[in-house]
Protein backbone atom coordinates (compact mmCIF):
# COMPACT_ATOMS: atom_id res chain seq x y z
CA UNK A 1 0.00 0.00 0.00
CA UNK A 2 1.53 3.35 -1.02
CA UNK A 3 2.08 6.12 1.51
CA UNK A 4 -0.35 9.03 1.38
CA UNK A 5 1.01 12.25 -0.10
CA UNK A 6 2.11 14.45 2.82
CA UNK A 7 2.93 17.71 1.03
CA UNK A 8 1.28 20.42 -1.01
CA UNK A 9 2.81 20.75 -4.46
CA UNK A 10 1.97 24.48 -4.40
CA UNK A 11 3.93 25.07 -1.15
CA UNK A 12 6.21 28.09 -1.83
CA UNK A 13 8.84 26.81 0.64
CA UNK A 14 8.99 23.49 -1.24
CA UNK A 15 9.29 25.44 -4.51
CA UNK A 16 12.35 27.21 -3.12
CA UNK A 17 13.92 23.93 -1.95
CA UNK A 18 13.25 22.40 -5.38
CA UNK A 19 14.88 25.35 -7.12
CA UNK A 20 18.07 24.92 -5.09
CA UNK A 21 18.23 21.12 -5.03
CA UNK A 22 17.38 20.52 -8.67
CA UNK A 23 20.01 23.04 -9.81
CA UNK A 24 22.69 20.59 -8.65
CA UNK A 25 24.13 18.43 -11.47
CA UNK A 26 22.12 15.27 -12.21
CA UNK A 27 19.77 15.92 -9.26
CA UNK A 28 16.29 14.49 -9.51
CA UNK A 29 13.15 14.53 -7.41
CA UNK A 30 11.16 11.45 -6.45
CA UNK A 31 8.24 11.11 -4.06
CA UNK A 32 9.07 8.45 -1.47
CA UNK A 33 7.18 7.67 1.73
CA UNK A 34 4.72 10.40 0.73
CA UNK A 35 7.35 13.15 0.66
CA UNK A 36 9.54 14.83 -1.99
CA UNK A 37 13.08 13.47 -1.93
CA UNK A 38 16.05 14.80 -3.85
CA UNK A 39 18.60 12.41 -5.26
CA UNK A 40 21.70 11.99 -7.33
CA UNK A 41 21.57 8.24 -7.44
CA UNK A 42 21.18 8.17 -3.64
CA UNK A 43 18.98 10.48 -1.60
CA UNK A 44 20.63 13.67 -0.34
CA UNK A 45 17.57 15.57 0.95
CA UNK A 46 13.94 15.12 1.93
CA UNK A 47 11.23 17.73 2.40
CA UNK A 48 9.14 17.11 5.49
CA UNK A 49 9.64 14.76 8.38
CA UNK A 50 9.52 14.66 12.16
CA UNK A 51 11.80 14.82 15.18
CA UNK A 52 13.23 11.61 16.55
CA UNK A 53 11.52 10.58 19.76
CA UNK A 54 8.40 9.18 21.31
CA UNK A 55 6.16 11.96 20.03
CA UNK A 56 6.97 12.23 16.35
CA UNK A 57 5.14 15.46 15.58
CA UNK A 58 5.06 16.03 11.81
CA UNK A 59 7.14 18.94 10.54
CA UNK A 60 5.80 19.39 7.02
CA UNK A 61 8.25 22.14 6.04
CA UNK A 62 11.41 20.60 7.48
CA UNK A 63 14.44 19.96 5.30
CA UNK A 64 16.25 16.72 6.12
CA UNK A 65 19.84 16.49 4.90
CA UNK A 66 23.22 14.80 5.45
CA UNK A 67 25.56 17.31 7.09
CA UNK A 68 29.25 17.62 6.36
CA UNK A 69 30.93 15.55 9.11
CA UNK A 70 33.16 18.48 10.08
CA UNK A 71 30.06 20.63 10.73
CA UNK A 72 27.71 18.08 12.27
CA UNK A 73 28.59 18.73 15.91
CA UNK A 74 28.28 22.50 15.52
CA UNK A 75 24.92 22.12 13.76
CA UNK A 76 23.65 19.84 16.53
CA UNK A 77 24.54 22.54 19.08
CA UNK A 78 22.42 25.06 17.14
CA UNK A 79 18.85 24.90 18.46
CA UNK A 80 17.36 25.30 14.97
CA UNK A 81 18.57 21.85 13.95
CA UNK A 82 17.16 18.53 15.10
CA UNK A 83 17.72 14.81 14.74
CA UNK A 84 14.94 13.49 12.51
CA UNK A 85 13.01 10.27 12.96
CA UNK A 86 14.17 7.27 10.90
CA UNK A 87 17.15 8.81 9.07
CA UNK A 88 18.66 10.53 12.12
CA UNK A 89 20.26 7.24 13.11
CA UNK A 90 22.28 7.46 9.87
CA UNK A 91 23.70 10.92 10.62
CA UNK A 92 20.98 13.05 9.02
CA UNK A 93 19.80 16.34 10.54
CA UNK A 94 16.70 18.45 10.01
CA UNK A 95 15.94 22.17 9.85
CA UNK A 96 12.43 23.64 9.96
CA UNK A 97 12.01 26.08 7.04
CA UNK A 98 9.79 29.11 6.59
CA UNK A 99 9.42 32.00 4.16
CA UNK A 100 12.04 34.01 6.08
CA UNK A 101 14.63 31.22 6.09
CA UNK A 102 18.24 32.06 5.22
CA UNK A 103 18.18 30.51 1.75
CA UNK A 104 21.93 30.92 1.27
CA UNK A 105 22.39 28.68 4.31
CA UNK A 106 19.91 26.15 2.89
CA UNK A 107 21.86 26.14 -0.38
CA UNK A 108 25.09 25.44 1.53
CA UNK A 109 23.45 22.60 3.50
CA UNK A 110 22.04 21.04 0.32
CA UNK A 111 25.40 21.40 -1.44
CA UNK A 112 27.22 19.67 1.44
CA UNK A 113 24.63 16.89 1.56
CA UNK A 114 24.79 16.43 -2.21
CA UNK A 115 28.60 16.16 -2.07
CA UNK A 116 28.28 13.36 0.50
CA UNK A 117 26.44 11.06 -1.95
CA UNK A 118 26.92 12.29 -5.52
CA UNK A 119 29.27 10.44 -7.86
CA UNK A 120 32.57 12.14 -8.72
CA UNK A 121 31.40 12.89 -12.28
CA UNK A 122 28.46 14.93 -10.91
CA UNK A 123 30.58 16.73 -8.31
CA UNK A 124 33.09 17.61 -11.06
CA UNK A 125 30.29 19.60 -12.77
CA UNK A 126 29.95 21.96 -9.79
CA UNK A 127 31.55 25.40 -10.27
CA UNK A 128 33.86 24.89 -7.29
CA UNK A 129 34.40 21.14 -7.76
CA UNK A 130 37.83 21.26 -6.20
CA UNK A 131 36.64 22.59 -2.86
CA UNK A 132 34.09 21.54 -0.30
CA UNK A 133 31.56 24.15 0.84
UniProtKB/TrEMBL annotation:
Keyword hit for Protein biosynthesis: no
Keyword RNA-binding: no
GO molecular function: DNA binding
Keywords: DNA-binding
InterPro entries, per the entry: YjbR-like_sf, YjbR/MT2646/Rv2570-like
Domain of life assignment: Bacteria
Organism: Gordonia phosphorivorans
Pfam families per UniProt: YjbR
Protein name: MmcQ/YjbR family DNA-binding protein
Amino acid sequence: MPHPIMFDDADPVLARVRQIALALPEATEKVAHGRPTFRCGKMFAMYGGSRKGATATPLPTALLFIPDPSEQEALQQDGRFFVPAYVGAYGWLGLELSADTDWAEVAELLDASYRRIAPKRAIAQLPDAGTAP
